[in-house]
Amino acid sequence: xxxxxxxxxxxxxxxxxxxxxxxxxxxxxxxxxxxxxxxxxxxxxxxxxxxxxxxxxxxxxxxxxxxxxx
Length: 70
What we know:
- With 70 residues, this protein is α+β, with helices and mostly antiparallel strands.
- Helix content is 30%, strand content 21%.
- The chain has 2 helices and 4 strands.
């Protein structure tokens, strides 16, 4: 199991547009690869005050397992 707490700490943005972009592209690539994989033998739990728009897009595109919700 992998737990990522306070994901908002690695997001960038502003008060008007929200904090919805990753500061480092590595996080985006990690989540994309995990969500696109056909099999995952572990669990990933993520907590955040802000939900990255990119994760919502991946969650609707790759529906192999799991869920992403607000």
